[in-house]
Amino acid sequence: MNPELLARKTVRELTPYQSARRLGGSGDIWLNANESPFVNEYKIQCDRLNRYSSCQPEALIQAYADYARVDKSQVLTSRGADEGIELLVRTFCEPKQDSILYCPPTYGMYSISAETFDVGVKQVPLTADWQLDLPSIADNLDGVKLVFVCSPNNPTGNLIRRDDIITLLNMTQDKALVVMDEAYIDFCPEASTVDLLAQFPNLVILRTLSKAFALAGLRCGFTLANSVVIDLLLKVIAPYPVPIPVADIAVQALSPAGLARTKFQVLDLSANRAYLQAGLGMLPGVTVYDGYGNYLLVRFPDGDAMFKALWDNGIILRRSPIENCIRISIGSRDECEKTLAFIRTQLEKIS
Fold first, then answer.
1. Are strands 315-316 and 144-150 parallel, antiparallel or unpaired?
2. Which tens digit of pLDDT belongs to each residue from 212-259?
3. pLDDT tens profile 170-182
4. Which of 31, 45, 322, 343 is the most buried (most CB within 10 A)?
5. Would you call the peptide bond into 284 cis, given omega within 30 degrees of 0 as the criterion?
6. What would the mean pLDDT of 106-124 be, rounded to a whole number?
7. DSSP 225
């Protein structure tokens, strides 16, 4: 018997998320996964590895609550923000009955997490300037339990207007949760919606240590919400979701010294982003969109040809679903300089 036949039909037909590592590549410059170029050192203790970890390590929850300026009862930690997405779908959506709503172009895991659990998916594309289409969202809320909004949005890099987020929160009260994906908010903390948690019980915020904290390999994320939502998620989460070394390293990253280091590194990456944006913006036929995370969306005269040329020469970037666009993660100054130089030379060849 073919084991595939035992799988649910939804899973058999599902196209998995094409992460940077699944797509592969071979080269010296990797700017395709919005990872940090910084490698930071941490101390790991092994004297507790024979014991299970706490479901929600108290020191970690308190450390992130202090950082986010919320009460610890409003914080849940998980295996990356991706697990937070899955937990929300499993907790609030009835299979084959409820739906989520999201606004492409944006992060692809919202739909995959929903489809995996036989939860419906509604798409309301962003407007031409990559903002929320509020009238269309209002027309599509029937049966929707979760509305996912990413800001800064991936892959476009722009911020969603705060007034529109507030309008959406008011529109969905007593109908659905609005899930703000703030994976990149540490690069623009002034744009966070965390202050709205006190006003809107239907607001949920996803965060991660993968980006600004340079801990993509740690897989440590957070969900911020009112305590009722957190308590419901705790009914669904795995018994031991946070390994002891993960909690220990995360607490170190959130210490005063760790936060100071992250702030310095964010300033460094922001300077590199400005350098890359200015350099690319001077090239003929190239459009660089404003970005508020650690990446830029760039439109080329022929995006596929440029992507292939870069790939073949060991500069691994990320294709975008937007025509002729490539997403470029912000790396070290040396990586940015080499990428810019190659693109400039390549454009000169075809001009």
1. unpaired
2. 999 999 999 999 999 999 999 999 999 999 999 999 999 999 999 999
3. 999 999 999 999 9
4. 31
5. no
6. 96
7. -
Structure tokens given for 315: 């500069």
Average pLDDT of the segment spanning 96-102: 98
Helices marked H in 93-216 = 109-116, 134-139, 162-172
Question: How confident is residue 260, by pLDDT bands cut at 50, 70 and 90?
Answer: very high
User: What stretches of the chain show up as alpha helix (H) in DSSP?
Assistant: 9-12, 20-23, 58-68, 80-92, 109-116, 134-139, 162-172, 227-234, 244-253, 256-281, 303-312, 333-350
- Tokens 């959130």, residue located: 254
- Measured distance CA(220)–CA(240) in Å, rounded: 13
Judge contact between 339 and 315, C-beta under 8 A.
Answer: yes
Task: Give the residue-averaged pLDDT of 275-303.
Answer: 97
Predicted structure pTM score? 0.94
Q: Give the list of residues 6+ apart from residue 280 with CB closer than 8 angstroms, or none.
A: 286, 288, 296, 298, 340, 343
CA distance readout (Å), 72 to 75, 76, 118, 200:
5, 8, 32, 17
Residue 87's contacts (CB-CB under 8 Å, 6 or more residues apart) are 76, 78, 223, 233, 236, 237
CA 195 to chain centre: 20
Residue whose structure tokens are 């240590």: 209
Q: Which of 127, 98, 132 is nearest to 115 (CA)?
A: 98
Q: Which residues pair with 147 in a beta bridge?
A: 101, 178
Paired tokens of 116: 């995996």
* Integer Cα distance of 250 and 254 in angstroms: 6
Residue 143 and residue 97 in contact, taking contact as beta carbons nearer than 8 Å: yes
Report the amino acid identity of residue 256.
Answer: P
CB 158 within 8 A of CB 291: yes
Structure tokens at 267: 């300033």
Strand, coil or helix: 47: coil
CA 64 to chain centre: 18
Say what the pLDDT of residue 64 is. 98
Beta bridge partners of 122: 101
Measured between alpha carbons, how far is 297 from 107 in angstroms, rounded to an integer?
14
